[in-house]
Automatic annotation (TrEMBL):
The lineage of its organism: Bacteria, Pseudomonadati, Pseudomonadota, Alphaproteobacteria, Rhodospirillales. PANTHER family: SUCCINATE--HYDROXYMETHYLGLUTARATE COA-TRANSFERASE. Gene3D superfamilies: Crotonobetainyl-coa:carnitine coa-transferase, domain 1, formyl-coa transferase, domain 3. Keywords: Transferase. It comes from Paramagnetospirillum magnetotacticum MS-1. This is L-carnitine dehydratase/bile acid-inducible protein F. It holds the Pfam family CoA_transf_3.
Amino acid sequence: MRALDDILVLDLSRVLAGPFCTQMLADLGAKVIKVEKPGSGDDTRGWGPPFLADPETAEKGDAAYYLAANRGKHSVTIDLAKPEGQELIRALAAKADVLVENYKLGGLAKYGLDYASLKTINPRLVYCSITGFGQDGPYAPRAGYDFMIQAMGGMMSVTGEKDGLPGGGPQKAGIAIADLSTGLHAVIAVLAALNQRHRTGRGQYIDLGLLDVQVSMMSNQAMTYLVSGKAPGRAGNGHAAIVPYQAFATMDGHLIIAVGNDGQFAKLADELGHPEWAEDERFALNRTRVEHRDVLTPLIEAETRRYDSAQLLEALERRQIPCGPINTMDKVFADPQAKARGLDQEVPHARAGTIPTVASPLRLSDSPVLYDRGPPLLGEHTESVLTEMLGLDSAMLAALRDKGVV
């Protein structure tokens, strides 16, 4: 048994935040029906290169972007703009436990597929809406994209090298952190609502805004402002409140050194040949190291440059000083720890046989994630889902296809 194998999810989301949420629900065992537009489907199917190549024809298949967030789902093509398509969605929603959507404000209400409409036919439905700015406020009607949300939510004000230094200025994260964080929060909210339903028998509405999530994810940086009244700025690879905690140059690259307490700093100072640093009143305590980071950091880097990265890594690990290499993705998956944890997996694929996938980090002892369902082809399960769940026969399906509904 898997943790959510009695849960049916109707996925009306596209791109990343919503699909990332529903992929995690699928990993946990939920049956996820991904509803896509006939002919084109989720936009991310075309967001490449790279694309998955057909092993027989070498033609381009789905993009890696799509494959990253749609594992374990059933793809059904339905045109929501057609009345017959809306009826199919209502019939599926009547049977669903969860619905996830990321249409613009009011986008589904015009089809009668909003929460107010669907809860009348399924009061147990947990309905999760993901938008850029939530369901109210002056920005609610606006579209929200990860890049702009990182900027508006403060992320880019603290990410990147300091102003005035080479490469200084605002910088986005290398991944769609606002989208992915919103997907994670959506999973948390859905699971909480399902537990509440277990007690009350009623579903509920979940309103998630990317901006809200991004501001929440600012965490200690946001609290720094709220407590001090001063907006924190960019610190490059440094840490605003911990020193040394950054990348240091070596003979052949860089190494991360993340000293978390004064004892670790004393061991670092000793290993680098300067035990006197730990007795220096400027460096003995973290709070004074923060005040004198501009003095201490060059002193440390003058010593780290005397080592190659592997040599320094070995020396620091021997002293249990937190450190690590800066890996490219090929090195990530080649790392012994990544291999031991099975961070790359294979899943079935209708066209390619099997394809690689990034392992779920969720390790449940009694209901583990199984890698037995890959990302679906566009419309791969339309016939089976509509036949098994709604009782449509071949003639009904043919009529719907003729009208372009499915």
